[in-house]
Design a protein that fits this description.
about 80 residues, mainly alpha, 2 helices, about 90% helix, elongated, ESAT-6-like_sf
Length: about 80
C-alpha cells in the first residue's frame, strides 16, 4: 500500500474518532438539557424522548459505519 493511502486511512480514522467524541459530548449535553427541560416542561417530555430515540438510532448507524470503515481499512492494509 502506498504511503499516501496509509495517511488517508489514518486521517479518516482520526476524523472518525473526533466525530465520535463530538457525538458523545452532544449526547451528554442532550441528557443534561433533558433533565432540566423535564423539570420545567413535563408535558414536552414524551416529544423529547422520541427525539432522543432518533438520536440513538443515528448513533448506532454511525457506529455501524465506523465498523465498516475499520473493516475496509483492514482489507486495504492487507492488500
Amino acid at each position: 500500500m502506498a504511503v499516501d493511502e496509509q495517511d488517508e486511512l489514518s486521517e479518516a480514522t482520526q476524523r472518525e474518532a473526533e466525530l465520535q467524541r463530538q457525538i458523545d459530548d452532544l449526547q451528554g449535553q442532550v441528557t443534561g438539557l433533558h433533565r432540566t427541560w423535564e423539570e420545567t416542561n413535563p408535558e414536552l417530555s414524551s416529544e423529547f424522548q422520541i427525539l432522543k430515540e432518533k438520536l440513538n438510532e443515528h448513533s448506532k448507524q454511525l457506529e455501524q459505519s465506523a465498523e465498516k470503515l475499520s473493516q475496509l481499512e483492514s482489507e486495504n492494509l492487507t492488500h
